[in-house]
Amino acid sequence: MVIVHHLSPITRTLSYFARGRISSKCRNSQMGSENLSLIDTRKRANFRLCNVSGYKMDLLEIHAKDPKFHVLFIPGNPGVISFYLDFLESLYDLLDGTASVTAISHIAQTEKNWERGRLFSLQEQTDHKINFIEHELQDVEVPIVLVGHSIGSYIALDIFKRFQGKVAYCICLYPFLAVNTKSSTQSVIKKIAASRTLSTGLSSIVAILGLLPVWISRILVKNSVGKSWCPAAVEALCSHVLRYHTVQNMLYMAMTEFEKLSEVPDWSFMREKKSQMAFLFGVDDHWGPLDLYEEISNKVPGAVLTVEKENFTHAFSCTEAGSLWVAKHVSGLIKNYFSKIDSE
User: Fold this and answer.
1) Which residue in 23, 49, 271, 300 has a CA-CA distance of 20 to 30 Å to 229?
2) What are phi and psi of 157, to 5 degrees?
3) Three-state SS for 320?
């Protein structure tokens, strides 16, 4: 098809600037019948639109009948929670119904342009999550477990500081906590995000793709960046990311991330709360490089650190295998933490 030949470079460019979360490196590993059975039988999540402090965002929720704790998931950038559907449903089932699970999207990274083109910074996205907890989770009597992915890890740590009496545990997945000056990808994205002309141009190109019939968009994704993606990831890209307002907000948020994460991490807080934190890194992840793994090891002795060596990449949630592996890891961390607490 001629249209695929001409547009596939554009979709590859989109994947490049979407920070590795939407990456052609995502791939499905072989999964046994036991793992496939878990995917097939898990409890399904509910999506709803929520208005907090005057701003609309998407929520993904799975409610337990008698929860012992509440998992709050903070996505990366793009902050489209449907990318994480398989991961969150698997996590709920692996926790055996002991926890309710909520995932909250970033403002203005939704299917519809609810905020009419307004751009939101990293700090504004963080404040919005804090407002959500204050308004929507104020009556939750069980402890909160924060799980963040990429820049969502940075946001989760900020939330932890604010709600130290309410948050019991914080898990950072492939964390983006500091600018990686060795990464050429980050350098290019930083330049594009800082340029109004370049960011507008890229957003416009993506918007054109979003105007295509859905079936054409799906074909383009499946034949370019999403060759091995799960259906939820393909749908998330087509329905939410191929939007002018979404890409504009992704890039603006990225610009403010680079500004904020040029600062030194709060090592004192990490040392103080190291027994209530855990970190998962990838082998080849420029957003959460092994240099950061080593730095946390040195600055925060005794911190719980793990390196994932299954080659799922930063965009683990784009495949069922990656989602399931990380869900098993996270559920194991949570179970071990509360088991220790109960035994004390």
Assistant:
1) 49
2) -65, -35
3) helix
Whole-angstrom distance, CA of residue 241 vs CA of residue 244: 8
- Reported as half-sphere exposure (CB side, CA atoms, 13 A), residue 222 has a value of 10
330-341: burial string, b at 16+ Cβ within 10 Å, e else: bbebbeebbeee
Q: pLDDT tens digit string along 242-269?
A: 999 999 999 999 999 999 999 999 999 9
CB 75, CB 149: distance < 8 Å = yes
Return d(Cα 151, Cα 43) in angstroms, integer: 27
- Closest Cα to residue 223, out of 321, 82, 215? 215
Q: How many domains does the chain have?
A: 1
Give the chain's count of helices (H) and strands (E): 13, 8
Helix (H) or strand (E) holding 196: helix 196-210
Extract long-range pairs of 195-201: CB within 8 Å, 24+ residues apart.
199/247, 199/248, 199/251, 199/252, 200/248
> Which of 225, 328, 319 has the alpha carbon at shortest distance from 29?
319
End-to-end CA separation in angstroms for the chain: 64
- Residues of the chain below pLDDT 70: 1-41
Which residue segment(s) compose the domain that 258 sits in? 2-343
The alpha carbon torsion through 335, 141, 171, 227 (nearest 10 deg) reads 90
For residue 40, the number of C-alpha atoms closer than 13 Å in the C-beta half-sphere is 7
- Beta-carbon contacts of 73 under 8 Å, excluding residues fewer than 6 positions away, are 60, 81, 84, 88, 101, 102, 103, 104, 147, 148, 149, 152
Q: Assign residue 128 the CATH number of its domain.
A: 3.40.50.1820
Candidates 337, 330, 333, 341; CA nearest to 92 is: 330
For residues 172 and 279, the answer to whether their CB atoms sit within 8 Å is: yes
pTM exceeds 0.85 = yes
| Structure token digits, residue 331 | 């559920």
State how far the Cα of 161 lies from the Cα of 167, in Å rounded to an integer. Answer: 9
